[in-house]
Fold:
Amino acid sequence: MNRLFDQFNVIGEWLFRIMLLNLLWLGFTLLGGVILGFFPATVSLFAVMRKWIRREHEINTFKFFIRNFKNSFVQANILGLVIVVIGILLAVDLHVSQKYIGIPFIHFVLLLIILLYSISVLFFFSTFVHYELKTFFYLIQSFFMCIIKPLYSLLALFIFLATITVFYLLPVPSVLFAGPMLAYPIMWIGNRVFTSFDNQKSHQKTFFA
Structure:
């Protein structure tokens, strides 16, 4: 009976941690007016996820989140702006290809580029919290990750889409757990890729270090 109670206690503690982290993510996203808050808040979310995945559970989640938010605010927003602009340009190109050009090969190439872009964005946050790089090298590193590890890339995309589908079907849990539920599997996959890189290139952590 005591063992069962302890298990429920552990589950309850983790649910509380996850809800707290989700509230921090939502709160600091709103604090930045969404536009300036989303990217540093999401970076901070992934930073906490990285600690948990690496079994560093004894951090003060609140203080650690706030510290990462402050430290990454400028750099994360600069990179976030670049990501958004690239996304808009790709969307415009796709629209032009569909409506005015109508050449299947060009359309296919654009769809492939958009796929690589989407996966690179998924890996961007885990790359940002794992490495210390010059600002724009985070984007290049994220792109190389999705190219060199295609199976992990497809798995990350599949999990992301599956999680979004679950949120659509079960909107109430998504309000409570959306951020961590999206971040955890992506960070877990990213951590596996980073470990693989580090094992293969023990003398060189990244392509650009």
